[in-house]
Amino acid sequence: MKIFDVCFQCAICNLTNETFVVKEPWQVGDECPVICHRCSPDDEESAIVTWIDTDQVLEGKEELAEWYENVRYHANTEEVAHLLLGEVPEGIVVETMTAWAVPKSRYPVRDWVTVREASELTGVPRKTILTWIERGKLFEMQTQGWIQNAGGSTLLLHRNVVERIEKMKKEKED
Fold first, then answer.
1. Around Cβ 21, how many Cβ atoms within 10 Å?
2. Quick one: DSSP state of residue 87?
3. If we measure between CA atoms, which residue out of 59, 36, 38 comes closest to residue 48?
């Protein structure tokens, strides 16, 4: 079983904000509940993960015991508290990582979005957008780009295409 010890830092001022121990880590582009009090307005409730870097993988009994001894003092373990009762569980692997996040109000709007982001922005299912692309309905304004959490190259759509998807959605509904 693998769990993740994720330390959040502000991508603007590099202030360490909070650490969470979770079953599934955040991905680049995801919203997270960690806000930098220096770089965001008081009423802001979330930030956007901009970069994730694996620090180390803890598998040895001694290093896991040391991590387990210290984790309760530096991390929010609510999500995995049922797994961390008493002593280090057998067969557990802990991956420690640092995630940099930017307050939503300071996150730049990109001209290019992933198909998943286009789906979220328009409310059109991802598979429908991919079908329209395959059938040539959304041929223009596409490129291959590098996205960290996609593990390499992924299809990117220009924001103009997002507007066209919304138009196609309205036409389909009428």
1. 23
2. S
3. 36
Among the listed residues 115, 142, 140, 143, the one whose alpha carbon sits nearest the alpha carbon of residue 129: 115
Question: What are the tokens at 98?
Answer: 């640092």
Q: Is-above-0.70 flag for pTM?
A: no
Question: Where would I find the H helices in 36-125?
Answer: 61-74, 115-122
Report CA-CA distances (Å) from 148 to 21, 103, 115. Answer: 21, 19, 15
HSE toward the beta carbon, residue 39, CA cutoff 13 A: 23
> In which element (H, E) is residue 129 found?
helix 126-134
pLDDT tens digits, 107-143: 777 788 888 888 888 999 989 888 888 888 776 655 5
Place of tokens 């979330």: 46
Spatial separation of the C-alpha atoms in residues 39 and 11, rounded to whole Å: 10
Query: Which residues lie across from 98 on neighbouring strands?
Result: 7, 53
Any residues with CB less than 8 A from the CB of 55 and at least 6 apart, and which?
7, 96, 97, 98
